Amino acid sequence: MTAPGTGCGDDLRTRALSERLRVVAVRGERLHLAADRAAGCAACAARKSCGAAALNEGARAETIEIARPPGLAVRPGDEVEVSLEGNDFLAAASLAYLLPALGVVLAAAAGLAFNLPDIWVALTCLAALGVALIPLARAERHEDFRTAFRVEAVYPAGSLSGLRSAAGRGPTCGT
């Protein structure tokens, strides 16, 4: 939560999710960032009994590649604050989770409505799952979601408090 009157968070129409990620490499106009899949686990109350935390314990950090904003000077080891608007996040989550689940449920319902044998219902569900994942694969191939990330601030390597925004000014908010 930001302080009232600071300008950060005043516009409730666009909410952004933000995360601080480490720069692994800078190649031309692309940034390669290390994303820890279990970054939120440390603050979660259910972390001791959570299966996802146990699965991610030995996992390597995933690398995300995003476009480098013009004029942004970063080096490997720096950290950047990256934001994603809430609507873009919901669109990605819908393509990744909602659409496949909905496709499988509708396929199962149709198979049962037509009194198909269980094996045919299962095969129909697998086919529906494959078809439902096509929009996600297309979005990934065309970088629809990667272009939605914005670099809000840069934290130079080795400095705990040193902060410069992507535009060269002071800290910025994620809205």
Describe the fold and architecture.
The chain has 175 residues and is α+β, with helices and mostly antiparallel strands. The chain has one domain (16-165). The protein has 4 helices and 6 strands. It has a 6-stranded antiparallel sheet with strand order 3-2-1-4-5-6. Strand 5 and strand 6 form a beta hairpin. Helix 2 packs antiparallel against helix 3. The longest helix is centred in the middle third of the chain and has 28 residues, at 86-113. The protein starts with 15 loop residues before the first strand and ends in a 10-residue tail after the last strand. Mean pLDDT is 79; it is low at 1-10 and 162-175.
Summarize the structure.
With 175 residues, the chain is an alpha+beta fold. It has helices at 51-56, 86-113, 118-132, 134-141; strands spanning 16-27, 30-35, 62-67, 79-85, 150-155, 164-165.
Shape: elongated
Order of helices and strands: EEHEEHHHEE
Query: Share of helix among residues?
Result: 25-40%
Quick one: how many beta strands? 6
Distance between the termini: 12 Å
Transmembrane segments: 89-113, 119-137
InterPro entries: SigmaE_reg_RseC_MucC
Keywords: Membrane, Transmembrane, Transmembrane helix
Pfam families: RseC_MucC
Features:
disordered C terminus; six-stranded antiparallel β-sheet; alpha+beta; 175 residues; 33% helix; elongated
What layout of secondary structure does this protein have?
Elements: E1 16-27, E2 30-35, H1 51-56, E3 62-67, E4 79-85, H2 86-113, H3 118-132, H4 134-141, E5 150-155, E6 164-165
Antiparallel strand pairs: 1-2, 1-4, 2-3, 4-5, 5-6
Helix pairs in contact: 2-3
